[in-house]
Amino acid sequence: MPWRLLRFALSRKYPEPRMFGAPRDLKRHYDVVIIGGGGHGVAAAYYLARDHGITDVAVLEKGYLGGGNTGRNTTIIRSNYLTPEGVQFYDASVRIWQQLSEELRLNLFYSTRGHFTLAHTDAAMRTMRWRAEVNKHYGVESEVVDATGVKQACPQIDLSCGGHAPILGALYHAPGAIARHDAVAWGYARGACERGVQIHQQTQVTGIDVAGGRVRAVRTNRGTIETGKVLSAVAGYTPRVTDMVGLRTPIVVHPLQAMVSEPMKPWLDPILVSGSLHVYVSQSARGELVMGASLDPYEVQSTRSTLDFVEGLSAHMLDMFPFLSNVKVMRQWAGMADMTPDFAPIMGRTEVDGFYLDAGWGTWGFKATPISGKTMARTVATDRNDPLITGFSLERFRRYALTGEKGAASVGH
Length: 413
Known about the structure:
There is one protein chain. The chain is an alpha+beta fold. The protein has 2 domains: about 30-70 and about 180-250 and about 340-410, FAD/NAD(P)-binding domain; about 110-175 and about 250-340, D-Amino Acid Oxidase, Chain A, domain 2. It contains 11 helices and 20 strands. It has helices spanning about 5-10, 40-50, 85-105, 120-135, 145-155, 180-195, 240-245, 305-320, 370-380, 395-400, 405-410, and strands at about 30-35, 55-60, 75, 110, 115-120, 145, 170-175, 175-180, 200, 205-210, 215-220, 225, 230, 250-260, 270-275, 280-285, 290, 330-340, 345-350, 355-360. Helix 2 (about 40-50) runs parallel beside helix 6 and helix 2 (about 40-50) packs across helix 9. It starts with a helix and ends with a helix.
């Protein structure tokens, strides 16, 4: 028996410290208040403390840490985007991901698999070539492969897709990876707490006081906190928080559903994505097939899952992999995707002094966790937008200077 396991069995007291602290009381004042205890919120707290020495920080989470979209996604990590802003931003995130387990001293189950975005039409193949050239220009490893290349990477796939949408080729992105979502939140939370940050779970924000165009305080179900800086990182709850400060955004919220199969012996190494079939799939370390599809077409702030989703996604999975017909679906869930018109996030300063926004992540927020935390921490600390996020500012919608990421973000995760 390993010594580490044996010492747990023989010790009368738990021999390791808590994963992260559980402060009992809110202070009356914090230098920074972060609303949202998901990956983005705790990552921002971690980098505020580590990189900028700002430790008088409260992270407020109305539920439990990582219980929102951080715990409801499909954990795909990639940087094969289409716009210069997106490629550079997500590539910086991938580089952090590759060393993050070591930095956080926690196994995040980061696994490089390779990512195939399947093309079923000539038009889709042209788009894949376009994306490949943009990626290569910024040093991101991507290339177009034909149907034979897809078959070699995944021999089990039916290239004809049941005759509905034959696969012509794909954009292959070698650095594509997956990780364990909840461990990411835990690791960042522990690192933040070790540096003095306080994380308050079961603490709901009920209002934000603004006077003279500046944030003054945050009201919660446990009392009022005076602060001059507030970062909102609440994904699908963003409209509720921006209403508190009188800020308008073009964000709309759609449910995004996913499901997993029963565990199977490993057979699917790469990550496969098909925009035409509205499906993406990878196999977890436990052998489950982790599957998702496109957004639900209706605007609802709800995490309810539906039978229609399971039936539709299962049918498309069987188009690609007919042999899965007897495999059971074990569970399903939904998250709330905060979508913007151009499928790029909204990050940085706002017209309300001291109020910072990290939102509009739609279906691609998990992969951005490290770089989002790092850039938002710098933005909050300096009160200037980090250079990497200038293309994601809220005011781009007023200038009609959109960051058109839809072709690389939709379904592609």
